Structure formats: structure tokens, C-alpha cells
């Protein structure tokens, strides 16, 4: 049974949600405007600012870089994070408690400090090319999401199934890929998406690891906004929102979106 | 072999976090203590600078105000969501997850469109005849706070919905049927059970807004410099590495103290929920 809510509570909740959704609707409207300046409601309807994104070479380049970095960093984080999450649930008694804390450090340490620290070590003669540093930073940045989401999936996995396979003669690696991994598939998909989005949206780490030669989309957006006040950025924002909606639909189909609320 | 299986499997991730995060950050923190002018000289320089201490105080102030506003509105919204019918509740949770997954740059940009000199709000105010001259809404502390609240209210809602859903409605009705006024039920039944969630939410919002970069950069500009934007300027514009490292160290120290103090408070207030 649903309790009756105080009308004042409902009114405030409605206002909070209008506050949340309104600005995103405004971006959508502004992106469709036919004017050379940002305005809402849109004056005339046009997709020219969407075309304009791809006419600006800096946007083309940074979109490619951002997707490359997000994809590679997510894959790397999965490659090192899945075994770590497995070890944390399967061999918990062997491992010290600080190990779990270590894997949340990238969330606790302020991102901007992390980015600056990476820049400093690159400059201090680690000699790594900037793309490698960017990729390394993003891999560590998204690792906590991988370890946490896979760990949550594994916590409901019955390890006696795995033991049964091993005792029947299945080699450990084969057991992992044919028994364990398929059972946490939804977790892997959700982890991939969360990690990908986190990397794609990152500002604070990329800020220090971009230069004249290489930059990411959010950094390019920041640079563009400071010079131009045209609807291009609104259009880019809409494309990113469409991508987010697609990703949310996938998560909804695999784990259910309420999972993200936990 | 089996005894080390856990170590072996977690080794690559462990080494990555240590090598890429822990060591570089430790080097930055250590650099502030090994300054040729003396171990605490960079900190003395920071706190002797009127501008930098103003920035520190401003950052703390913006974070504190953002946290309080997010707590109040996030709590009310989360309460309504947690008591909504099932389908509506899922929809409202999705509506809070979506902005959270939309990047910070996009969300700050939205407020640039709204608050700008030729923005929507000024356009509406001029059209309504409230003012002839557009107000300078951008690059004020208020603009930064609005942008920050916008950034963090979804996080607060999602944190609190989980907690409030677990408080049975029966309990509140029992309190009411035993003669407690709604105010008494709120303060003596609902709040004590919600406090651990409120603390978690407050820590997330405070530390998040304390270290945010894109929102104060876009909506506050140089006039509302905060620690994160100052750190970036010192490092990338002035190449003052020691100054930037000192700001980094102060940010880490404050962030970690807040996390430690608040998690201890949460544990003391609710030993069951925190364990």
C-alpha cells in the first residue's frame, strides 16, 4: 500500500525533478536552433550545428581520441580488474583488508590531484608519451567501478559450482571462462558501460594530460565554450546524452538500472 | 601455489594502482615537505597569501552550502521517491541516474546557457520587464553553487532512496497512531534511522564539490577561483609546481579528514548499519 504523502513534500520533489530535467531539455532545444548564438526556445529548426561538430577538425580528432581512450582503458581495467574482483571474493581470507581499500583509492583521492600527480611524474622523466599516460590514468580511474560491479555480481555467485567443475577435472582457466564468467556476464556488461562513461566524461585527469597534439572531447568542449557561444557544444552534448540513453537501456536489460542506485 | 592464488590474481590491479596512483601522489605530497626553503615553507607561503587563503575559504564555503542545499532537497525528493508507487519509483530513479551519467561539462554548460548575459533567465527577466539591463548572474558564487547543486542532487537522491526505502512505513504509522505529531515522528523516528545515509550523502557531496573543476571553471571563472581551478592555474599557467603540489596536499588532507571523521561519526551513531 502506498502511503499518502504530504502535498508539500510532493511539491518540493516535483520542483527538484524539474530542476534536474529542465536544463537538459534546454540543451536539446538550443542544439536545434537555427541561430548562430545559443538561445531557447529554438528559433527555427535546423541540424546545422550537428553538422558543424564534424566540420571542426578539433572535435573530430578529440571524439576519436576520447573513444579510443575510453575503450582501451575500459578493456585494460577489465583485464586487470576482473581477476582482482575474483580474488577478493574467492580468496578473501588470504588477502589483507587494505587491498579492498586500495581499489577504491582512485575514487577517494581527488581526481584533480591524481591528474596533476600523473603530469608531474610524466614530466619528471618517466618519458612516457602523453597518450600512454592518459590511458594509464584512465585505466586506474575506472578500475574501482570494474572491481566493485564485478565484485557485487560475484557475491551472489555460488563458488561450489566452480569447485564441482574443478573436481570433475576441468582445468582452472577453462573453468573460469566457461563457468564463472558466464554467470557474471551482466556484471561485466554493466562494469564496461560504467567504466566507459566515466572515462568518456572525465575532465580532471585529462586536463593535465592533454596538449597541443592530443586532447579529449570534454577538454575540447571546455576550450570551445571559452571562445565561442554558438550551439555546437549543445549539439555535442545532445549526442553524448543520446549515447548515455543507449547505455542505460543496455544496463536496464542486463542488470536493471536500480542496480546503479546501490 | 594455491596459497598465493589470491595475490597473483590481484597483483596486476594492485601494481597498477600503486604505480600509477599511489606513488605519483606520494611524490607530490613529499615534494611539499622537502622544499629547499624548509619542510613547511610551501605551507607557510600558502597561508601567508591572502589570495590563496581566500580561495581556500571560498572553496570550503561553496562546498558547505552545496552540501546543505543538496541534503535538504535531496532528502525531500528521495523521501517522495521511496514512497512512490513501484513503476513511478523506477522512473524517478532513472531520471536521477541519467544526469549523473551525463558528463560534468555538459551539465555545467547547461547552466551557462541559462545564466549567461544573453541567457534564458536574463532574456525572460528583460522580456517580463523586471529589468532593462541583464543581470550579471555568471561568475558569481551563486552561479557556482547552483551548478554544484545540480551536479550533486542526483547523487544525494540515489544515496538516500536506498536508505529511506528500508525504513518501513509501518514504523512511521505506528508512531503516528501512538499520538506522535508529524514533527515528532520526523525528528524522533525517521531522522535517527536516516542519519547514516545522510552522512554518507553529505561526505560524497562535500568531497565532490570541494574538488570539482569543470563547474567552477565554467560558471565561476577567475572571479570565483576555487582550489581545483587554482591548482590547474599554478601547474599549467604559472608552472609553479611547488605551489600546485601544496594545493594538492591541502586538498588531500581535507578530503581524507572529512571522510575519516564522518565515517567514524556514522559508525558511532549507528553501529549496526555501519558494520
UniProtKB/TrEMBL annotation, chain A:
Transmembrane segments: 7-32, 67-86, 98-119, 125-147, 176-197, 203-225, 232-251
Keyword presence, Transport: yes
Sequence ranges assigned to domain ABC transmembrane type-1 in this UniProt record: 63-251
Membrane topology according to the record: Multi-pass membrane protein
GO cellular component, one term: plasma membrane
Source organism, top-level taxon: Bacteria
Gene3D superfamilies xref list: MetI-like (1.10.3720.10)
One biological process term in Gene Ontology: transmembrane transport
Subcellular location, record wording: Cell inner membrane; Cell membrane
Keyword set includes Oxidoreductase: no
Family recorded in the similarity comment: Belongs to the binding-protein-dependent transport system permease family.
Name of the protein this chain belongs to: ABC transporter permease
Organism placement in taxonomy: Bacteria, Pseudomonadati, Pseudomonadota, Alphaproteobacteria, Hyphomicrobiales
From TrEMBL, chain B:
SUPFAM superfamilies, per the entry: MetI-like
Domain ABC transmembrane type-1, first and last residues per copy: 56-260
One example of a Gene Ontology biological process annotation: transmembrane transport
Keyword terms: Cell membrane, Membrane, Transmembrane, Transmembrane helix, Transport
CDD domains per record: TM_PBP2 (cd06261)
Main location class: membrane
Localization of this protein: Cell membrane
Transmembrane segments: 54-79, 91-116, 136-164, 185-206, 241-261
Gene Ontology cellular component terms for the protein in this record: plasma membrane
Organism domain of life: Bacteria
Membrane topology label: Multi-pass membrane protein
Keyword Transcription regulation: no
Signal sequence interval, chain numbering: none
Family from the record: Belongs to the binding-protein-dependent transport system permease family. CysTW subfamily.
Protein name according to UniProt: ABC transporter permease
Highest classification ranks of the organism: Bacteria, Pseudomonadati, Pseudomonadota, Alphaproteobacteria, Hyphomicrobiales
